[in-house]
Amino acid sequence: MNPLLGVIFHWLGGLASGSFYVPYKGVKRWSWETYWLVGGFFSWISCPWLFASLLTEDVIGVLKSQPVGVLGWTYLFGALWGFGGLSFGLAMRYLGMSLGMGVALGYCAAFGTLLPPLLKIFMPDIPVAESLSQIAATHPGKITLLGVGVCILGIWIAAMAGATKEKEMPAEEKKKSVKEFDFKKGLIVATFSGIMSACFSFGLTAGEPIGKASIAAGTDDLWSGLPSLIVVMLGGFTTNFIWCVMLNFRNGTGYEYLAREQRKPALAKDGSVSNDQSEDRSIPTLQNVFFSALAGTTWYFQFFFYSMGHIRMGGSDPEGFGFSSWTLHMASIIVFSTMWGWIFKEWKGSSKKAYMLIVAGIITLIISTIIIGWGTYLKGAGVGGH
Fold first, then answer.
1. How many CB atoms lie under 10 A from the CB of residue 311?
2. Distance between CA atoms of 335 and 345, rounded to whole angstroms?
3. Single pTM value for the model
4. Which of 24, 171, 207, 379 has the fewest CB atoms nearer than 10 Å to its CB?
5. What is the rounded CA–CA span in Å between residue 132 and residue 189?
6. Which of 215, 227, 195, 192 is nearest to 304 (CA)?
7. Strand ranges (DSSP E) for the chain?
């Protein structure tokens, strides 16, 4: 166990997550569902198998040795997380990187704490969490729930910043930085995304027996979380694949994967990255595949480093610091996504009030993750039982 190294790994994962959407800006004349699915193939299928095969022992044998229940729960949580993943991309599309990630990840941090104990009420055998009453009965639990409340406050402040931005900025100015800026639609999508994205943490917990089996097969414990990523991300790929193909059929965009030319010069409402009105309708397929692959691979690396950080923080060891992994991950993503938001001038032209609100919202969200992390630390350290 090396908590300092674990923190570094988590922040590397946060950098990857906060940066993954940047390469998509290089995609031209592909609809959202097209480039999202291409990028998703690399992040959810190609990379998990590649790195697990290179860095772990007998990955296929390890997976085959697992009970159906372990694989089933891990896959199910991955599929639920998939809903959060596909809507996460939509949140970036409608809100931009700083506001979109701030709101979505704020919800993710909150529900990553609340959803498991709520599910425990209806599914007692679920392989995660205590019940909500058990959490609320302890001193660490009360602190953690306080952090959730602060998190919701941060979400509200960030939402106020978005409302202020939408009200004050001319439509043409908003479109310069976020071409399809839509605060109401984006807020709904980001809320749903944040709630469902929290299921990834549950998937990793459900898949811990896979990691133990991998260690028993001779894998270094640093890489032991990689085989479980195969199962979680397969679930995520299933959800995203079905949805993107449905959109391809509904919007008539399935031809884009192989076409050399776009049928329409601009597709403002169906997710086209290039929204210009020029006569050039050529599709740079190789360029689009490259940037989508880069985005998808970057997306995967957030969980690659997350699994390493979780192990170095002590993993599931109650005496370690593994319980703080999710909050560290959320905080680092918020910081780096906000950084990209400033770089791409998504808030250029906003009033001082809007600037102050988004800064206050982001700071509040970071504080909330610290409080949640402190509560889980006290729990792991066995401090203040009741």
1. 27
2. 16
3. 0.70
4. 171
5. 26
6. 227
7. none
Give the residues of the chain that fall short of pLDDT 70.
Answer: 1-4, 6, 89, 92, 96-103, 105-135, 155, 159, 162-163, 166, 169-181, 264-279, 312-328, 331, 346-347, 372-373, 376-377, 379-386
Please choose, from the candidates 306, 287, 284, 283, the residue with its C-alpha nearest in 3D space to the C-alpha of residue 295: 287
Spatial CA neighbour of 331 closest among 276, 385, 361, 368? 368
Q: Which residues contact 296 (CB under 8 A, 6 or more apart)?
A: 20, 38, 39, 40, 41, 42, 43, 44, 46, 47
Q: Supply angle C-alpha 351, 353, 359, rounded to 5.
A: 105
Residues 6+ apart with CB under 8 A from 249: none
Q: Do 27 and 198 touch, CB atoms closer than 8 A?
A: no
Rounded Cα distance between 157 and 65, Å, is 48
CA–CA distances in Å: residue 161 to residues 98, 165, 169, 188, 298: 11, 6, 12, 15, 28
Q: Which of 310, 129, 111 is nearest to 228 (CA)?
A: 310
User: What do you get for the CA distance between the two ends of the chain, in Å?
Assistant: 28
Of 103, 34, 112, residue with least CA distance to 272: 34
**Domain ranges across the chain:** 3-381
Quick: pLDDT tens for 91-101.
Answer: 767 776 666 66
Residues linked to residue 261 through DSSP beta bridges, in sequence order: 282
Q: Are 127 and 205 in contact (CB under 8 A)?
A: yes
Rounded CA gap, 29 and 47, in Å? 26
The predicted structure's pLDDT at residue 146: 83
**Residue that is written with structure tokens 């979680």 in the block:** 232
Q: Which residues pair with 282 in a beta bridge?
A: 261
- Tokens linked to 364: 């509040």
Q: Which of 94, 108, 112 is nearest to 17 (CA)?
A: 108
Structure tokens at 222: 């640093």
Distances (CA, A) of 142 to 135, 139, 258, 324: 7, 5, 55, 16
Rounded CA separation 188/71 (Å): 31
